[in-house]
């Protein structure tokens, strides 16, 4: 591994204002602006990031935080809900990355196993070893697409290209 990422886990109680927790995350990212970061959290915030449900005030704060820091939401939009109780199901648990190439995220899935919680287990596999480039063709359609999904897919597509240094010898005039 050529770097050590910062890994943050966070719990935001549904009974407490989320603003203070977002402020703490902002402070950590301000202090480590260029560091690779993984945030895994139970935000207890409803947003249309991963479902068709309405966004609440807490969800707006989380979405603003994600946008401000150019964060990638790793959640699979087709996964089963991360929270399930007799009253309802929801996707209130998020896996977020910053300054991490999407190719390093091998897997993020919600496990459908019995737990002693209303929350399901979430498996996130990260591999920082160099991986070979795989040729793939990706068609991105803006029609009926959520902007964060588009941003994630576009970033994945861009990351399939190798890095190159632009010099006066190899640039076109």
TrEMBL record:
Molecular function (Gene Ontology), one example: catalytic activity
Ranges in a coiled coil: none
UniProt xrefs under SUPFAM superfamilies: DNase I-like
Domain Endonuclease/exonuclease/phosphatase: 7-122
Pfam families assigned to the protein according to its UniProt record, in alphabetical order: Exo_endo_phos_2
Protein name (Swiss-Prot/TrEMBL): Endonuclease/exonuclease/phosphatase domain-containing protein
